[in-house]
């Protein structure tokens, strides 16, 4: 955790103080005459998982890439721990939809690649990588290459790489959309554990309503043309009931229905 | 391939063509084609002569220097063109012109500029090989998966690290394909250079043998040259196959 005396953003939520790891302030993004995002302000509480949910073309990935520093907003700014973001930084790590692994590198080197780029010594970074490979359940596959792994296993490599650089914020761009349904469910359960055990802030882009409600502490519903936040939902009751009970919790089902009701008119 | 249920080893068709050559040679149709057996005997006797070995060294030197320059200049130039719009706009028309231009016509100009020695031959070889290497490296970089580029930026890669640790390797299948074609063109370049600029190396041998109607010698040297070009090209093709597993998965 960052204990440096920087300016902290503090919001009042359900009676207790929550610190924000990431805040976006009046972000607008235009592609020529096309307005992708307009005046989008959103806070991402520290140590929690926030989902960006919306129909396709609503700019959720654009927003995530602006937070990552990969895209420049036309106006507005992003703050991470109170500091304005000007580009990619070591305080944020990214998990890609299509994994973005190096096909010519072993699992071990892929996971250690973020540290390799930071100039960490080989033995040290491989020790860190081995730990995270174990954590994501890929022990024994260190010497394998990505093309020898299934889609789900490749995304575990992508996740381990993002965890290995130990940044405070994890940005996940539809990370489970390219893996099969059963693997995805396992991933979602693992993600819940990860949010609890790792003291990190997760920002999670998805187009699956069930997935968003299942994994999130906070769900931001984005509506398209131009994108803005239409609603923020914070599920309260079922977070603590254990992973296996969430899907039949009444509040869970209600929220899923409610979100679908508000999104359905925007789906072609 | 199978004929009458028997599996033929690779390149067995060469035996057939060799037999035809032998028959045509023995029939005495033309002095231009001596029998293959005679060519092979000559080849064996020529291999040990100082003249042949000197020619081999001169040709190999010009060839490898030319390939070295085209690879060392061509690959980075191609990668830069693929990554930088401005450089691309500046260089692409020239690369395309030189790729399709009849470079042989340029050789006299090179002689004026760089003299009649080895330097001009190496430059001719480079000019034959480099353009396709540039174009292929550029194409390789242009097709790099966008998220791989974003990954490098996200995890804080410096431009140099992104270049050496990501872009080069991601474009490697296309780069190797370009190098393979470039090497074949370099063989052409080195012989044309030796024939036109200064009569050295294999070029000198070809000139000597054909002027004196030593056809068996002429064919022997040609077989050596073809064999070397083929071996190098096959070796690069083998490397290409070795890494092709990731070409589809970037």
From TrEMBL, chain B:
Which CDD domains does this one have?
TM_PBP2
What is the predominant subcellular site recorded for this chain? membrane
Extract the Gene3D superfamilies matched here.
Answer: MetI-like
Q: Which UniProt keywords apply?
A: Cell membrane, Membrane, Transmembrane, Transmembrane helix, Transport
GO cellular component annotations of the record: plasma membrane
Spell out the protein name for this chain.
Answer: ABC transporter permease subunit
The keyword Cell membrane appears for this protein: yes
* A GO biological-process term: transmembrane transport
Q: Where in the cell is it found?
A: Cell membrane
Q: Which residue ranges run through the membrane?
A: 6-24, 31-48, 60-82, 94-115, 121-141, 190-210, 216-239
Could you tell me which residue ranges the ABC transmembrane type-1 domain spans?
56-234
Record family assignment = Belongs to the binding-protein-dependent transport system permease family.
> How does the protein associate with the membrane?
Multi-pass membrane protein
Superkingdom, taxonomy of origin: Bacteria
